[in-house]
Amino acid sequence: MRYLAPLAIIFSFLTRLRALLFSVGFKRSHHLPGFVISVGNLEVGGTGKSPVVMALCEALLARGFRPAILTRGYRSGLKAEDSAVYLGSSLLMPPQQNTSFHADEARMQAARLTNVPVIVGARRFLAAQRYLTSHPAPTHWILDDGFQHLQIHRDLDLVLLDAQRPFDNGWCIPAGRLREPRSALKRAHHILLTRSPSDPSWRAPKSLDSIPLPKHKLIFEDGPLLQVAGPPLVPGVSAREGALVLGIARPERVQAHLKSQGFNVLESLLVGDHQEIPEPALHQLAQRCPVLVTTEKDFWRSPEVFRSLNLPIFVIPLRLHWASATSLLEIFMPFTSQ
């Protein structure tokens, strides 16, 4: 790591310089009509942003608001200046260019939040402007993975940190996993501690004591297996064993959950986070195993491929449990009133 330290220092300096240019107005942040709530993190990889984004949307919908999700669509295949919009299982606004794309998290969010538009585009302000040309403005924009996306002004910045190791090894990329140094948290309004233990006596790491921000404990829970595709189980075939297919940042969490539930993993097919699962390998796996288990995000990356296997396909739903008696939005009410 010591050989990468100079590069990490340069990276850290450049991120701080970029944030400074936005804060003094040298670089411009664009305003969108309505409230903008950013859900982001400091660390590369997954910290549970999607469950938080969906929980916020569900809470807003329950109060009569009209949220929309604005997401980059990491590794979606969309051109930088292009965009698309999902609504439920439909493509409400297709890309302007003829290109195939795979927005796994966006499709997953749209499938669960059937009346929330999910707008996908690397240049998110342009994507939002394109959406607004033919659709009414939402009351709230949920900026998914937005902490570093300073081109859009936000009214509320929520930063997710891993409750067990909030700053990894303390170094920025490439010596560590931080996108920005911890000093960037001065831009945030609240810290959400994800993957917190359910033990009520658990306390946050002391490394967070010096950060003067409200901190909230979040608990994620893997739900029971849910069949989303394929024929029903035939007699003699159990949903307690089969193949595991994953393309997420931390597969060990899912593996541990299945083991705790007594699921027998016969074979595994693991690829990197957001990577396309090779279709030939998937079909070969389907010929050897009676059941296939994956995550919601992995399924929605290529649902047509999974459905073509003619095999019972199960996903592991990930749900968010708010660990305090106060509801998610009551804490942020100053930012969510009409």
What does this 3D model show about the protein?
- The protein has helices at residues 5-23, 49-62, 104-112, 124-132, 251-260, 279-288, 296-301, 303-307, 328-331, and strands spanning 35-41, 67-71, 84-87, 90-93, 118-120, 140-144, 156-162, 190-194, 215-222, 226-229, 241-246, 264-270, 292-295, 313-316, 318-322.
- The protein has 9 helices and 15 strands.
- It has 338 residues and is α/β, with parallel strands linked by helices.
- The protein is globular, with a radius of gyration of 21 Å.
- Strands 4-3-5-2-6-1-7-8-9-15 form a 10-stranded mixed β-sheet, sandwiched between helices. Strands 10-14-13-11-12 form a 5-stranded mixed β-sheet, sandwiched between helices.
- The protein has 2 domains: 5-220 and 322-335, Rossmann fold, CATH 3.40.50; 224-316, Rossmann fold, CATH 3.40.50.
- A hairpin with a 2-residue loop joins strand 3 (84-87) and strand 4 (90-93).
- It starts with a helix and ends in a 7-residue tail after the last helix.
CATH topology tier name of the largest domain? Rossmann fold
Q: How does CATH name the architecture of the largest domain? A: 3-Layer(aba) Sandwich
Distance between the termini: 49 Å
Overall outline: globular
Query: Whole-number radius of gyration?
Result: 21 Å
Largest sheet: 10 strands, mixed
Please give the number of β-strands.
15
Indicate the mean pLDDT.
87
Q: What is the string of helix and strand elements?
A: HEHEEEHEHEEEEEEHEHEHHEEH
